[in-house]
Amino acid sequence: MTLLHYLDANASEPLRPEAREAMLAALEVSGNPSSVHRAGRSARRLLEDGRETIAARFGGNPAELVFTSGGTEADALAIHALGRGRRLIIGATEHDAIRAAAAEAAVLPVDRAGLADLDALAELLADGPPALVCLMLANNETGTIQPVADAAALCRRHDALLHVDAVQAAGRMRLDFAALGAHSLALSSHKLGGPAGAGALLLHPQVTALTPLIGGGGQERGRRGGTPATAVIAGFAEAARIAEPIAEHARMRDALEQAAIACGAVVCGAGAARLDNTTCLALPAIRADAQVIALDLEGIAVSAGAACSSGKVAASHVLQAMGLGPLAGQAIRVSLPWNASQDDVAAFIPAYQRMVQCLRAPLAQHAA
Ligand code: PLP
């Protein structure tokens, strides 16, 4: 069996051992955090400790943190609650979690590096009733980092609210919700090295009333019904506490990119500030799914576009919005996890070179 080199962190980070330990300990607590007895109070303590850890880590206020089932629900809750009575404006490269919840939104164009056009945002904001703007901090496919603080300042000038999807950014770059000036921010546990099944929405203290997406027993101060997944949240909190940008990632990513460029690849998003762990490599004329399969046979796990859509063979809406034309169906995403090693890089480079040779051969024959 070939050794697996897991380079698909943006789909899910490997579970951190510390998060696993925290979950195992939390599983021993059997109470419901809503119960008043001792067991309930123990569960409540776990939940509130987790809330404090995550809020403190990302510049939020524990009282303004709503636990959800993940990033998708946090995005949907923000749009449902903050978007009430407002028109919606979303970035063209937002994740499907945003696109699905804001299907009628006006779309903000991006440039070839994937950066949102803030002049276009200013024009959209000046023209019409108050809006809710959704702009992600870092893109899941290219790693492109958006000028969110500038967008927030623009939104405030026009009485608009700003929701930030920070699912891919959290733990991989500096993130301070209070300093960003946004009104809400979505997080997801499994993108930080915690377990899947938990996420959070951070709210600005100005956002006082929040209409829940899911009603029920008044949990989360009436903002999200349902018994919270205490053990999963304990793992989420531990992962959030220890997740930090990794200094070697940029060097490893650059080595991968140089090798890929030497094989004729195009780096999508090059020129913009990007997450150090992410690169999006397009190979002209070679389908993304064929590349993913060929690398999988070599024991290298990467993905084509967003994880949620890699089951279907569709061109990436992110790369299309960046004006990359046919390359939008010919790009793979390589994303380094917290535990990536030089061995992974050393294995990827020759595997990529063999993959290019092998997939190009039929094209050369066809042309001959
Ligand atoms: N937002 C972004 C930018 C993502 O990359 C993802 C998942 O890939 C999500 C939201 C959805 O998060 P979750 O899988 O926790 O629902």
What do these coordinates show?
The protein is an alpha/beta fold and 368 residues long. The protein has helices spanning 17-27, 38-57, 71-82, 96-101, 118-126, 148-157, 177-180, 219-222, 230-242, 248-262, 288-297, 317-321, 342-367, and strands at residues 5-6, 65-68, 87-91, 106-108, 131-134, 161-165, 184-188, 199-203, 266-267, 278-282, 300-301, 331-335. The protein folds into two domains: 5-13 and 246-367, Aspartate Aminotransferase, domain 1 (Alpha-Beta Complex), CATH 3.90.1150; 17-242, Aspartate Aminotransferase, domain 2 (3-Layer(aba) Sandwich). The longest helix has 26 residues, at 342-367. Pyridoxal-5'-phosphate is lined by residues 70-72, 75, 95, 97, 136, 140, 165, 167-168, 188, 199, 307-308. The site of pyridoxal-5'-phosphate has 15 residues, from helix 3.
